[in-house]
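Worked example 3. Consider a protein that binds magnesium ion.
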Amino acid sequence: MTEVASANHLSRISRLDLVIGKLHQLIPDMLEFSFETCTEGTLAEKCKLVIDWRPVIVTCRDCNNRSEIIDSIFICPLCGSFRLNTESGKELFIKSITGE
Amino acid sequence: MDIVLMKNVLDRNQNKADENRSRLSERGILMFNIISSPGAGKTTLLEKTLAHFSGVLKIAVIEGDITTDRDARRLQPFGSKIIQINTEGGCHLDSHSIAKAFEHLDLDKLQLIMVENVGNLICPAEFDLGENHKIALISVPEGDDKPVKYPLLFRESSAIILNKTDLIPYTNFSLERFRNYVRELNGSIPVMEISCTTGSGLSVWFDWILAQIKEKGVPE
Ligand SMILES: Nc1nc2c(ncn2[C@@H]2O[C@H](COP(=O)(O)OP(=O)(O)OP(=O)(O)O)[C@@H](O)[C@H]2O)c(=O)[nH]1
Ligand SMILES: [Mg+2]
Ligand SMILES: [Zn+2]
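Given these inputs, the predicted complex is written out as C-alpha cells:
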C-alpha cells in the first residue's frame, strides 16, 4: 500500500477500500484493530478502512440454481445437490486507495 | 486522489505458488499440504506414512514449525529427506518458503512431497503453496463441529482425515454428527477415519495416496 502511495506521490493515505468474501474467516473488529496497529507511524496512519463484504454465492451444477450460502451449508436449496460451484465469497483484494 | 487498484492481497503468494506447482508437475511430483490444529497428529501420521512406504515411494517432507526442529528430528529415522522451515512466529507457511525448501531437495528423485503446515486451521487454508491437495486433519478431542467452524479449509481440501478415533468412547464426539457436518460442507470429499495409535483406518489413507499417485501418472 505504501509502495503504491509513493509511486503516485501521495504524502498521506486517507482511505482504503477492500473487497472481502465471507468465506474468509476475518472478523471485522480484529481486522480493524490490526489495521490500526500496522499503519501506526506510516503514511496510512488514521486511514479509514472501508470493507465491501461479499456473500458466498454458489450455482448448482445439477439444476443451475443460484443461491447464497448461509451457515456453511453447501447444499443446493432447490434440488439438494452437493455439486456446487463457488461464484463469490473468496474475494480478497484492494479496490482502491484514496490519498493526497 | 483515488487510485483504483483491484489488486489481489495474496497476489505475490499466488504467483509463486503457481510457479511451484508447475515445477513439480513438469517432474510428475505430487505435493500434499497437511493442515490441522496443534497436536491433532500431523507428525504422527507422517511417521506412520514414511514407515509404511519406506523403500516403496520416494517421499520428502517439508516441516513447518514456529520454532524448534523437534518434529523434523522425529521423522529422521525413516530414510526420507526432511526439510525444516522455521516460520519465526509466523502462523502459516507461504509459497516463497516452499520454493526455498525445494533448493535443498533433489526434485528429480522424488514422487511425493508432504508438507506439514504450522498447526492452525485458519491462515494455512488461505495460502496456496503450490500443492496438488490440501488435506484437512482433525482429531476427536477437538469436537465434531470443527468443519462448520472452518468452512474455507473444508471447502478447499481434497480429503479430510479424522484422527484419534480410538478416543471416541471417552468423549462426547458423535461420528454421525461429524459426518453430517462434513456432508453439508462438502458432499463429495473423501473422509478417512483413522487412529494412528491403533492403526485403524490407516490402510485407507495409504490406498488414497497410491490412487493419487496413479492418477497423476507418477512413475512408480
Ligand atoms: N490417542 C491418540 N493419540 C494420538 C493419535 N495420533 C497422535 N496422537 C498423539 O497426539 C499428540 C500430538 O501428536 P503430533 O503428531 O505431535 O501432532 P502434530 O499435529 O504434529 O502437532 P504440532 O506439530 O505441534 O501442531 C502426541 O502425543 C501423539 O502421540 C491417535 O490416533 N490417538
Ligand atoms: Mg507436528
Ligand atoms: Zn440444484
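Take a moment to read the result before moving on. The radius of gyration of chain A is 18 Å. The longest strand of chain A covers residues 13-21.
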